[in-house]
Amino acid sequence: MDSQIAGRAALVSGASAGIGAGIVRVLAGHGVRLAVTARRRERLAQLADQIIATGACAPVIISGDVTDSRQAARIVADAVAALGPIDILVNSAGGSRPTRPDAPDCDWDEALALNFTAARRMTQAVLPSMLERRCGRVINLSGSMEPRSLNAATAAKAALHLWAKGLSCDVAAQGITINTIAPGRIHSEQILDTLHPTEESRRDFIERHIPIGYFGEPEDVGHLVAFLASPQARYITGAVIPIDGGMHGFAH
Question: I need a labelling partner for 32 at 20 to 30 A (CA). Which of 103, 105, 137, 237 fits?
Fold first, then answer.
């Protein structure tokens, strides 16, 4: 099925590795014109080389820190200068932040800046053009809402869910959809290096908690992003969509 997104302009944050990089690879395969951003410029350059090797157009590399308001504004401005108005924004930057009950404000501020505020700022920066053109797609990456211990990122992602839902109501009639994806266990640095650093721990978790029988790949998330970015998904907005192989809710 033709996704009908070839030629569209997309900006993807958190694109240097893992889920973000998988999303970029999938969108590039659909012919999307891409700007990619993250703090690790060398990783973005490696990703660009991979995409060029497939015959797709090279993405525009914009290194920066989306948690810094001035850098976030520059990233969007540079993407628009290179590609024109942004049709698809993918807010993929984020990360788990296990938190002590007595954690200082700076820990909470950092987690909120990365997992919520960056997405809000980036969206606010691209939204005026989308409203003017009466079309646009914003897709956020979230996570589990079933905490088993205190994690500042979980609180930030809860804010992301409700902000996205509220915003979706305000812009739906203007042809803009706002959706959130909640990945489960996807092969990425965070999953493989921190949550499940051994093959034994991965097998045990899969056997107990994931009916489909394996961890997902970043491209599995990318395919859902491509669909949500397409005209076929025009009637889906304000949703939080899990992509987790049927993982049990109590497994998080």
Answer: 237
Asked if residue 248 belongs to a domain, the reply is no
User: Which tens digits make up the pLDDT trace of 114-133?
Assistant: 999 999 999 999 999 999 99
How long a stretch of residues is the chain? 252
Greatest Cα pair distance, the chain, in angstroms, is 52
Domain membership of residue 165 (yes or no) is: yes
| Sequence-separated (6 or more) residues with CB below 8 Å from residue 198 | none
Ramachandran region of residue 181, left (φ > 0), alpha (ψ -120 to 50) or beta?
A: beta
Host H or E run for residue 38: strand 33-38
Structural domain containing residue 236: 9-186+219-240
- Taking the CA atoms of residue 236, residue 161, residue 217 and residue 212 in that order, the dihedral angle to the nearest 10 degrees is -80
What is the model's pTM? Answer: 0.94
Q: Is residue 249 part of a domain?
A: no
211 belongs to a structural domain: no
Q: Which long-range contacts (CB under 8 A, 24 or more apart) does 84-87 make?
A: 84/9, 85/9, 85/126, 85/129, 85/130, 85/133, 86/9, 86/10, 86/11, 86/35, 86/126, 86/129, 86/130, 86/136, 87/8, 87/9, 87/10, 87/130, 87/135, 87/136, 87/137, 87/229
User: The CATH number of the domain where 72 resides is what?
Assistant: 3.40.50.720
d(CA 142, CA 183): 7
Residue-wise pLDDT tens digits, 27-46: 999 999 999 999 999 999 99
Task: Tell whether the model's pLDDT for residue 88 goes beyond 80.
Answer: yes
Given a cut of 70, is residue 94 above it in pLDDT?
Answer: yes
* Residues 132-147, mean pLDDT to the nearest whole number: 91
Crossing angle of the two packed helices 18-29 and 218-228, in degrees rounded to 10: 50
